[in-house]
Amino acid sequence: MSHKIAIVTGGAIGLGFAISQKLVNEEIKVVIIGRDEQKLLSAKHILGSLCTYRIFDLSNLTGIPDLVKDIYNEFGQIDILINNAGINMKKPFIEVTDEDFDSIIQINLSAVFAISREVVKKMLISKKGSIVNISSMASQYGIPKVIAYTAAKSAIEGMTRAMASELSPIGIRINCVAPGFIKTAMSAKALDSDPERKQKVLSRTPMEQMGEPEDVAEAVYYFCSEGAKYVTGVVMPVDGGNSIGF
């Protein structure tokens, strides 16, 4: 086939959409996965003929094997997987219930494992492929009131290294991008309503500004490209220096 095939979970909005757009611009055919058909249709309209979509709730772990099989059967290959989909919950530690914790872990960690496992089974056929996980600054240092999200993203980074160690000898590279404070609708809503927190964010970011979704997309594409053919098991912060700021 003339085009590589990429799967981007949560690819219709925010960082996922920026990643999908970058891949399409590089002539990669993208399958975006999400729960909201209207958002998927809107993204496909913008991304054009190199984009297709699947309506799927990644909390349905038992349905993931059939999802991946369906995509593979349609395109005959899966070259790239971007594990971008995720949910967050801001709650004081002692108010987080077991159900709260499990729901965040299921989408942000268990689903990443399950879809990666099924995609790797297909990548093993061609003995090549690239998987990029999306982590967070929450895995770099402690942020209050996001305990489940932090646990999941910290685990994602450990899983990235373990997968890379096991799968890279077979030709499948695994890397991770850890975004800092990026200008998205979600972050804008959170920070614009809390000027004190926004100032704290900027004051400890050496570049003194928030990033753009395209900054994350460029990093993700690098890991997928031939330019990174000798790079695996890496966690790259894209945060304007926030993780090392004082």
UniProtKB/TrEMBL annotation:
PROSITE patterns the record matches: ADH_SHORT (PS00061)
Lineage: Bacteria, Pseudomonadati, Bacteroidota, Sphingobacteriia, Sphingobacteriales
SUPFAM superfamilies reported in the protein's UniProt record: NAD(P)-binding Rossmann-fold domains
Similarity comment text for this entry: Belongs to the short-chain dehydrogenases/reductases (SDR) family.
Record-linked InterPro entries: NAD(P)-bd_dom_sf, Sc_DH/Rdtase_CS, SDR, SDR_fam
A GO BP annotation: monocarboxylic acid metabolic process
Range of residues in the leader sequence: none
Top-level taxonomic group: Bacteria
CDD domains documented for this protein: SDR_c
The protein's name: SDR family oxidoreductase
